Protein: TRAP transporter solute receptor, TAXI family
Amino acid sequence: MTLSRIAGIAAMLIGSTVAAQAQDRSDWPSSFTVGTASQGGTYFAYGSGWANLVADELGMSGGGEVTGGPMQNMALVHTGEAAFGMTTMGPAAESLGGTNPIAPGLEMDMACAMFPMYQTPFSVTALSSSGIESISDIPDGAKIGFGPAGSTSDTYFPRMLEELGVNFDRRNGGWTDLGGQLQDGLLDVIAFAAGIPIPAVSQLEVQTDVNIIEFTEEEQAQILEAFPVSEFTIPADTYTSLDEPARAVSMWNFAIANCDLPESFVYEATNVVMSDNDRMVAIHRAARSTTPDNWDKNKVLMWHPGAARWFNENGASIPDDMIHGN
Structure:
């Protein structure tokens, strides 16, 4: 066979591959956004990171968007205003049940599971100078920041502290702003619910001395009984302020996709995130849990068909009745 003939065949093969790729992407969106949360929180750092990674790898425009967190993300993804988002299992269940405070009565069943992210620990931070070293030390009427309105922390942490008998003055805001208020003495405590290490806490440690307050065994057991959370231990190497692991509780986070997005698009986006964990860990250490074996932590949302196909091809066994459209 002549060299010219070989070159011709190669050109035909390349041309057909390019054509196939173009055909495969014919129904893809031209760009996408990922609903995250406020700046200074883990959602924003993690979500912006994986949005940029997917955009780069798939050769398209995409990025993270500042939002109010899990509750708002469920609404944005359900309506299609955001292609992707991030949520925790508690807010996801409430949204499916029509009790999302953003749109009461609306069952947000067009937000589908995409991939497991990490666990969100619930932890309390105070300035060391405050003398607050335990939940029971929190003074009556303390000014406590619970994060953005409608966030996982704002939805569940006030209830948890009420369960433990804490009487407080509730404040909301982005994590970075609340960190500044704590440092300035405008808040007594911040009740964080975010993947660790939380950027705002790490920044506080650089600027001042803080206490990372753990639950007692009795407090942890009481919270586990009353809320949809799991036991969790914050490793001692997470923060310089910790000398030993800290007892906490946590809730799983999942990436979500609008259920109407093309199967091939979500499949490829899922593959970018899940096929190389080292890249995700480089974005944020919380991504150490962004692994295929954690697919079974979703017991609430229907799976997007594209994501389900990727996981089932990579060791999962997602049942047909948990896949949207089946």
About this structure: The first strand starts at residue 31 and ends at 35. Residues 6-23 have pLDDT under 50 and may be disordered. The chain is about 40% helix and 20% strand.
